[in-house]
Write a structure and sequence with these properties.
Pfam families: Fer2, Fer2_2
Strand order of the largest sheet: 2-1-5-3-4
Oligomer: single chain
Structural class: alpha+beta
Protein name: 2Fe-2S iron-sulfur cluster binding domain-containing protein
Organism: Ramlibacter alkalitolerans
Keywords: Iron, Metal-binding, Oxidoreductase
Number of strands: 5
CATH architecture of the largest domain: Orthogonal Bundle
Order of helices and strands: EEHEEEHHHH
Shape: globular
Length: about 170
């Protein structure tokens, strides 16, 4: 067992966990934050995507003890009270979900992706590596390629991300 401290969605938590506990299981099973989903449990579907220190990660591939002292943001931490985060509102407005299972991971990944884009990080499809990447549909698709949607809502997801991009902090 290992004692650790996590700041999840702005709330401090002290946990006593088996050292083999993934961050995903710590969030779902120990903190009751079930918005983050367990899909493939192999880091291939993106349903478990959360933000750690502002960067997106697959929580199923990361041990909780690796994040002792880190700030973790899950889908539950994005809205401000009853006011949806701009990405959440855009997914609703653009019908970027069907069954909704992948949606929390899609939204957290989109937020991380937009931050990467703003920081000037290129992707595989970035044309000019010396210029700031543009928010083109091809760029969004490439950067979101680690998040799978079994319902095939991809065109609506891309549109939602494009719509919300200017409002995301």
């Amino acid at each position: 067992m290992h004692s650790l401290h996590l700041n999840v969605n702005g709330t401090e938590h002290r946990l006593e966990l088996d050292e083999r506990t993934t961050l995903l299981d710590a969030l779902r099973e120990h903190l009751g934050l079930t918005g983050t989903k367990k899909g493939c449990d192999h880091g291939q579907c993106g349903a478990c995507t959360v933000l750690v220190e502002g960067r997106r990660i697959n929580a199923c591939l990361s041990l909780a003890v690796m994040h002792d002292g880190d700030a973790v943001t899950t889908i539950e931490g994005l809205a401000e009270g009853e006011r949806l985060h701009p990405l959440q509102a855009a997914f609703v407005a653009r019908d970027g979900l069907q069954c909704g299972y992948c949606t929390p991971g899609q939204i957290c990944s989109a937020l991380g992706m937009l931050r990467e884009l703003r920081a000037g990080m290129p992707s595989h499809v970035t044309q000019d590596l010396l210029a700031a990447p543009e928010l083109a549909d091809q760029e969004i698709r490439e950067r979101m390629s680690g998040n799978l949607c079994r319902c095939s809502c991809y065109p609506n997801i891309v549109a939602a991300i494009r719509d919300a991009a200017q409002d995301v902090r």
